[in-house]
Amino acid sequence: MSGKKYAAISIMLALAILLGACARTSPTAPAEHGKMLVVASINPLADFARQVGGDRVQVETVVPPGASPHTYEPKPSQLKALSRAKVLVLVGLGFEFWADKAVSASGNPDLIVVRTSNGLKILQQGGGEGSGNPHIWLDPINAIHQVEMIRDAFVRADPQGKEVYIANAEEYIGKLKALDKEIRKEVSGFSTRKFIAFHPAWVYFARRYDLEQVAVVERTPGREPSPAEIARIVQAARKAGVRAIFAEPQFSPKAARVIAQECGAQVLFLDPIGGVKSRETYIDLMHYNLEQMAKAMK
Ligand SMILES: [Zn+2]
Fold first, then answer.
1. Fewer C-beta neighbours within 10 Å, C or N terminus of the chain?
2. Ligand 1 is an ion; residues with CB less than 5 A from it
3. Gap between the Cα atoms of 245 and 253, Å rounded
4. Domain that holds residue 84
5. What is the count of structural domains for the chain?
């Protein structure tokens, strides 16, 4: 065999091996080779985990896009990843009502469970059963704390990636600080501070940016208001002179429409969860929400 021909065959063989290797790794593979498997309860936490973990992690989200984490009960098949995961990222406060059972069923004693609300000042308003309001991530300054907790958990789970996790977290925290400034600036131009939320998701946001939630459409998410409650909300809306009633894509906008019609306001959508086109990342999601608020309150 001539040297040239031999070289050509070697290259073809090498290519075939390479192609074979590529075909075996798909993004839906149970655990991408060499990557640390991380499970997050909701999309914003999954995004934080991706920002911190970069190429070193594969992140799966439990609550699918369009579902409400308040009511969504994950199927056992969706929790299978927990048996192989290194880290589970949660809000805590009982928000992930399925988590304790899922963790003990995972048969994974080394799983690191991060409750990112630990260490934050928790508001009670709108929380269920005295556990506090879980919507901490909608305040970007709280999000910084959550990112730091995820970073520390990743360092513990994968010490070899320490420098990467620290650098990624620092860079992303810089972006969250910029987002906070941007929101602050936009909100300072609002002509009203008052708004009517769909469910009590925006209390941390409101506290951070000095806005006032005067009423909510559904005090318990997923439970539509009674006629008497609707009448009270309409009255609050008229008194505050709100131009819009906020609905949310994870819930039926029916009650919000009824109220909006009664007081001559429009219906706009705020999205606490995202994970859908153009609202995939947390920062894109918050830009979207800021835009919607500006439409109603500027
Ligand atoms: Zn909620």
1. N
2. 201
3. 10
4. 28-182
5. 2
Q: What is the CATH number of the domain that holds 69?
A: 3.40.50.1980
Compute, in angstroms, the gap from residue 160 CA to the centroid of ligand 1: 36
On whether residue 6 sits in a domain, the answer given is: no
Alpha carbon of 218 to ligand 1 centroid (Å)? 10
Q: How far apart are CA 52 and CA 166, in angstroms?
A: 8
Cα of 221 to ligand 1 centre, how many Å? 7
The two three-digit tokens of residue 2, written as one number: 């001539």
pLDDT in tens, 9-67: 454 445 444 444 443 333 444 556 789 999 999 999 999 999 999 999 999 999 998 89
**Separation of 199 CA from ligand 1 center, angstroms?**
6
Q: Are 95 and 105 in contact (CB under 8 A)?
A: no
* Tokens coding 79: 């929790």
Each residue's pLDDT tens digit, 236-282: 999 999 999 999 999 999 999 999 999 889 999 999 999 999 999 99
22 within domain boundaries = no
Find the 74 Cα to ligand 1 centroid distance in Å: 16
Query: How many A from CA of 155 to the centre of ligand 1?
Result: 30
> Does a structural domain hold residue 1?
no
Say how many Å lie between the CA of residue 134 and the centre of ligand 1: 7
Is 112:87 a contact under the CB 8 Å cutoff? Answer: yes
Global pTM reads: 0.87
> What confidence tens digit (pLDDT) does each residue in 140-197 have?
999 999 999 999 999 999 999 999 999 999 999 999 999 999 999 999 999 999 999 9
Of 144, 164, 182, which residue sits at a domain end?
182
Q: Determine the distance separating the centroid of ligand 1 and the alpha carbon of 136, expressed in angstroms.
A: 10
